[in-house]
Amino acid sequence: MASCPSNREEIIELAQLEVLGALEGVDGARLERLFRDALPVVQREVIDLQASMAVQSLLLPVIEPERSLRLRVLASVAQAVEATDAQLAPIALIGRPSAAGRTMATTDESTSSAASETLPAIVDGRWRRSARLWRVGFIAAIGCLAATLVILVATARSVARIGELALQNSSSDELKDLTGTGRKSLKAVLEEGCIVKGLVGATARDNGCAFVALTPNFEEVRIVWVDLPRGQTLSLHAVDRVSGATRLVGDFTVELPLSGTCRSLEKGAANANTDWRLLDERGSVVFATRPTN
């Protein structure tokens, strides 16, 4: 059944939600049904759209400090300076001669009146200069602290950007190793208009994700996985949706967290309505296109 323009718009919208991980189970089944019944041109458009969205760097997390951090730092510096001024204010009074001292000085007839008036002024001036030096030193220390905080914020941004670039470069290199070259490459398989079906974990303990790409001539199938445990041996099975018959496609070992493998299919082993399952060494279903009861 050819898809009408309204179905095409719905397929495009559901395909975008699927890439963002916001597609519910019922909507996922509807997307699968509409994609299967759509024209090859629409299927090609959906595949290209999802491939372009999957490599967008805007989907990666961006870590930025709060904009209010600078204002909070400046407010803290201002409060610290005010508190310091209040604490250092009595320092200027230390060492000033008391009334009793001035009385004793005046009783000493051997000391001139000019010397008795000059000495307190000299002592007071020294303590005032000392208080100013302490204040200047404290303000300089606060300024250095503020500059350090600014540098730390800038460094955090740089680290986040470097991490993003490293993640992109690492993902790009791994994808290059995964896609390969020639007719067997993932790019070549997708360009053939293959049927792509995602696999979901059978239980909450099964982390990671995988999908199956079936060529239009039903002769080859490629399984691609992300973040599966290394060293685990899994077997891919094709399940006929009508009869429920299960056929083993092949076994493979997970050597890298991000990788894939290609398997040839016998004639009649799979079709567009085939469901897929991944079984572990014990025969338990770990991933499937449809949840198992």
Please tell me about this protein's structure:
With 293 residues, this protein is of the alpha+beta class. The protein contains seven helices and eight strands. An eight-stranded antiparallel β-sheet has the order 5-4-7-8-1-2-3-6. The protein is elongated, with a radius of gyration of 38 Å. It starts with a helix and ends in a 5-residue tail after the last strand.
Determine the N-to-C terminus distance: 31 Å
Read across the widest sheet, the strand sequence of neighbours is 5-4-7-8-1-2-3-6
Shape: elongated
Order of helices and strands: HHHHHHHEEEEEEEE
Largest sheet: 8 strands, antiparallel
**Structural classification:** alpha+beta
Mean pLDDT: 75
Number of E-type strands: 8
β-sheet strand percentage: 15-25%
Q: In terms of topology, how is this protein built?
A:
Layout: H1 5-20, H2 25-37, H3 40-54, H4 69-88, H5 99-107, H6 113-179, H7 186-191, E1 195-201, E2 209-214, E3 220-226, E4 233-239, E5 246-253, E6 258-264, E7 275-279, E8 285-288
Helix pairs in contact: 1-2, 1-3, 4-6
Sum up the structure in keywords.
8 strands, elongated, single chain, alpha+beta, eight-stranded antiparallel β-sheet, 293 residues, 50% helix
What is this entry, summarized?
By secondary structure, the chain is an alpha+beta fold. 50% of the residues lie in helices and 17% in strands.
